[in-house]
Amino acid sequence: MRRAFSDTLVLAERNLVRLPRAPELLLAFTVQPIMFVLLFRYVFGGAISTPGYSYVDFLIPGIIVQNIAFGGFVTALGLNEDMHKGLIDRFRSLPMARAAVLAGRTMADIVTNTLSMTILLITGIIIGFSFHTDALHVIAGIGLLILFGYAFSWVFAFLGLLVSTPEAANSVGFIAVFPLTFISSAFVPVASMPPVLQDFAKVNPFTIVVDAVRSLWLGAPAGNYVWGAVVWSVVIIAVFAPLAVGRYRRAAGQ
Amino acid sequence: MESGKLSSAVVASEFVEGTPSSGPGRDHAITVRGVMKAFGQVQALAGIDLDVARGSVLGLLGPNGAGKTTLVRVLTTLLKPDAGTARVVGFDVIEQAAQLREKIGLAGQYAAIDENLTGLENLTMVGRLYGMDRQAAKARGNELLERFDLLEAAGRPAKGYSGGMRRRLDLAAALVAQPPVLFLDEPTTGLDPRSRLSLWEVIEMLVSEGATVLLTTQYLDEADRLADRIAVIDHGRLIAEGTSDQLKDRVGGERLEVHLEDRADGDGAMRALAPMSDEQPTVEGKVVRLGVRARKGSLVEAVRRLGEAGIGVDDLVLRRPTLDEVFLALTGHAAEEATSDGGGRP
């Protein structure tokens, strides 16, 4: 067990050390989210009405959820690359803990997700975002986001092991996650959508997580959102972690 | 040489430690019995028996898709065989996979290094995954980088390395824990001649230190230079095994080419050389060609026979069979034809 943990740390470290050396990935974590924030705040924001909140307060929780969900892309691309370059074979021929490859990957995502969340929060605060609740709620919101991001890392781990090329991981992931983030309460109030989309948006886990974070950070009515968000995250992990592990075993055993 | 003895001793003790009281392969670092593996309809390994003596180098020769890589993957615990047993330093590839992994190093067909890590970071990572602490892994990494002439590039990300440097780094990664058995899967495929040569020298150095090596290759010259024994596999079966000389003799010996000084001596030369060959020599202009039974002594004998007949010679060439000729003779088809990818990666 201790061995599994230390191997996981070694691989998490590896995944983080290499990140700054892949500039295109680093841009995806830093500049791209900032561009999105500015785009929505200043280009679309004026046309979107969010009763009860300024748009920037409404936007920041939504855009952080979107970013954190996409954060797992690094895992999808990284695992796919490792498979094709023979690194998974090397790892499997070493006397190391089997689980460490996936665990190390997803653990590294926690760090990168925290980094991109920090960048987005700072950007948000500069352009006028503010928390409306106490520190405890703010921290709870951050914790919830990290949990949800971690859950999506497992979705992307599965995806990365499933598809044949990094490009395929990119497009499949994008097609799957993009509608989920946009047909949700992340950028516009759900009530402004046509009824069919509203039905989808209301059950969409992204809506639930975004609304949970809004309630924790802005004091919006919480309902069952917070627990709903925790349950969704746990369910996603419970489904996709075993799928990813199974896929890893199969993919590596061929 | 001192260190060579030391390493051999280590190999021996590892071996004894891992070996159950008796059974096949007491003197063998690798034993394979009846191993089979199918991928769907393709029988990648169709019952392989093989032994590799401790401290020796076995060259596993075969065309693409012959099953070489599949066998290496079975022996390195990456792949479970459908049937049969295989042991490495006495450990069963299925039952004792975890212990076995501590005793092997694998350098695969594709340099399995992280391109975004530096040379040193790559080796340190592997060392720590073998269970070393950070300091020890780093020290070992530096030692290997120096040995493989990579110290200068140690701090640069591996994506800037040349093909030869990548393979050397990959090989270094396989050696981090000083494993007694090494698996090298086509270590020089795709390398330029100079990098190939330098990699060969590295492998020879390891062998001189007592490592047991199983090497797969498509190149006869590589097997020739590095391997003590060669096993030829095709369509998942072992079709020949022996030293390189034995195999070449079996393939039909050597081709002798004699370039005469005088075109008029053609018939005389044919008569003089005929007893050396099972076939009728051919003459084409100033060149006489014949197959000889064995390499040993052929050149001397040809010179003697031609000298006795008073025939002047410009040049003599004894050509060993090429890989294609070996495959043609052993398998009935040329090496390039067999590209069905049964033994390759998915």
Task: Compile the SSE list and pairings.
The complex is a heterodimer of chains A (254) and B (346).
Chain A: H1 2-18, H2 23-29, H3 31-44, H4 55-70, H5 73-84, H6 87-93, H7 100-126, H8 135-162, H9 166-182, H10 195-203, H11 205-218, H12 225-252
Helix pairs in contact in A: 1-7, 3-4, 4-7, 4-8, 4-9, 4-11, 5-7, 5-8, 5-9, 7-8, 8-9, 8-11, 8-12, 11-12
Chain B: H1 2-18, E1 28-39, E2 42-53, E3 57-61, H2 68-75, E4 83-88, E5 91-92, H3 97-101, E6 104-107, H4 119-129, H5 134-147, H6 163-174, E7 181-185, H7 193-208, E8 212-217, H8 220-226, E9 229-234, E10 237-242, H9 244-251, E11 254-260, H10 266-273, E12 282-284, E13 287-292, H11 298-308, E14 313-319, H12 323-331
Helix pairs in contact in B: 4-5, 6-7, 9-12
Description of the molecule:
The complex is a heterodimer of chains A (254) and B (346). Chain A is built from twelve helices and no strands. Helix content of chain A is 77%, strand content 0%. Chain A has helices spanning 2-18, 23-29, 31-44, 55-70, 73-84, 87-93, 100-126, 135-162, 166-182, 195-203, 205-218, 225-252. Chain A has 254 residues and is mainly α. Chain B is of the alpha/beta class. Among the domains of chain B are: 2-103 and 179-248, 3-Layer(aba) Sandwich (Rossmann fold); 253-320, Alpha-Beta Plaits (2-Layer Sandwich), CATH 3.30.70.120. In chain B, the strands form three sheets. A six-stranded mixed sheet of chain B has the order 6-7-8-3-9-10, with helices on both faces. In chain B, strands 2-1-4-5 form a four-stranded antiparallel sheet. In chain B, a hairpin with a 2-residue loop joins β12 (282-284) and β13 (287-292). Chain A binds chain B through residues 3, 6-7, 10-11, 14, 17-19, 21-22, 85-87, 89-96, 100, 252-254, and chain B through 39, 73, 76-80, 98-99, 101-102, 104, 106, 108-117, 121, 125-126, 128-131, 157, 159, 173, 345-346.
